[in-house]
Amino acid sequence: MTILKRPPVPLIRYLTCFLLSLTMLRIIMRNSTDIMTQSFNSTLVCDRSDIAQQLVEQLSGTMFEVTNQSASLPKLAMKQLEFTGMFILAVRNCDSDMMALIDMLLRQQPMPVVIFTDAYDAQVEKQAIQLGVSAYVVDGLQPHRVLPLLSTARNRFLQQQTMREQVQSLETKLAERKIIDRAKGVLMQQRQCSEDEAYRLLRTTAMNQNMRLAMLAKQVLATANLLETHSHP
């Protein structure tokens, strides 16, 4: 009779970790696929019914399928944009008033914006660039070219969003570093200690209280300001 020996504990742990890692990898890959193929349902504003119909038909069944439609930008209700991932404006003339409305729209809900217009306006083009419009197309509305343009606009928007988030993260870290440095200065003055000792005290206290270091530093500065205010009525 063959006796099967139990695998050593390290091997069991290794196999367990491997299976868990494989499971997590499958979840990540599935989620990544979902993100790349998620719907970017479009809101279309077009002042010509025939062009609007062509665009709706061209985008039907795609990730940019038109789910909201209006013939006029001012008539478009903001609530219609709640689940919109792409905004398409196809008009004869795009003016500064329209750009102001688009500015309000993007402040409420950032999204890729593609503008098709028959007439070129340098001022409007400048405004579009400043607002971060993903594409501004003059006299080039051809239904068969719309899908590639929307795809490019979407990718550009996502790239810009990533860059904005990275810049914002960096700015936040720099601001927090300044706050921590100021808090260290307060502790160094109060306790007559070195910079390293002040930092260790902050870090240890933050860990013990389960707080972020920057949040604790803000509290230290707030307390110091309060004490200074009371000491100098």
Outline of this structure?
The protein has 233 residues and is of the alpha/beta class. The chain has helices at 9-37, 49-59, 96-108, 122-131, 143-191, 195-208, 213-231; strands at residues 42-46, 66-70, 86-91, 113-117, 135-138.
Outline the structure in words.
With 233 residues, the chain is an alpha/beta fold. Among the domains are: 42-141, Response regulator (Rossmann fold, 3-Layer(aba) Sandwich), CATH 3.40.50; 172-231, Arc Repressor Mutant, subunit A (Orthogonal Bundle). The chain contains 7 helices and 5 strands, in the order αβαββαβαβααα. The chain has helices spanning 9-37, 49-59, 96-108, 122-131, 143-191, 195-208, 213-231, and strands at 42-46, 66-70, 86-91, 113-117, 135-138. The longest helix has 49 residues, at 143-191. The termini are far apart.
